[in-house]
Amino acid sequence: MTRLHEIRTLDDILAPLRQLVRQGLDRWCVEDGTPAELGEALRYCTDGGKRLRGALVMLSAEAAGGQCGDLVQRAAVAVELIHAYSLVHDDLPAMDNDTLRRGQPTAHVKFGPAMAILTGDALLTRAFGLLAESQDPKAGEVTEILARAAGASGMIAGQAADMDLCNSGDGIEAIEYIHLRKTAALISASTQMGAIAGGAGETAVSHLGRFGLQLGLAFQLVDDLLDVLGQSETLGKTPGKDLSAGKRTHVALMGLDKAKELAGTLTNAAIAEIEPLGSRADKLKILAHLLTDRTY
What we know:
Layout: H1 10-28, H2 36-45, H3 52-63, H4 70-90, E1 100-101, E2 104-105, H5 107-111, H6 113-132, H7 139-150, H8 155-162, H9 171-197, H10 202-229, H11 232-235, H12 241-245, H13 250-254, H14 256-273, H15 282-292
Antiparallel strand pairs: 1-2
């Protein structure tokens, strides 16, 4: 793990953790018997990205005093598989209809809509299969948290609301409904999964879960800011999509300055949640600040 004094940039803290997640994906993503064409699509759709959710699993295990053992590694890979599946499906023509992801053509552009749908399905089911294969007695609890965050009351509810397919209220209420479910739920699940897999007690799991929730809200808010201010070469995806699609965001409702201020407030609230964990949570605190200041 990276030492605190060596951390200057977001990549300083995420790069070594990305490598661990990549090793896990190479080992577990494509099952034996997978058709070659589908395996290619699975590898393509899990390549690149910040690996934030997997990193949060491992950093939360560390903050809880645990080691990066088998269940922690499986949980980190599983949450990245869920995240990748969500991106593949979100980018589809029937959803957000985007053509650029992580600096590359989106899955439906590269492989066609049918293969993209099946790739997303395969990523989703593999995530839970990977956790089910664990012999750790805590695997069931970890799996339950991931299923709830990714399911119909979590991430999928957020996407449905984002597309105006369900009633989520108006104004700031609607934005918070969407962001809590579409983004923050999975980020909070990542911190809880890492804590549980790392052997944390109930109190530490609660603190880390609330940290993840506030961090997830701040992360989405910064994403919305970058959609307005960023460049495609830096972001790896098409900027300005939210504005052109008329999406409900804090930036659209509050303006840039107030949205930036709120991102800082949410980040500080996240960090306050893990103060009771002491110095073991220092990397998470640094990560929270770096995520708020990021340009991609």
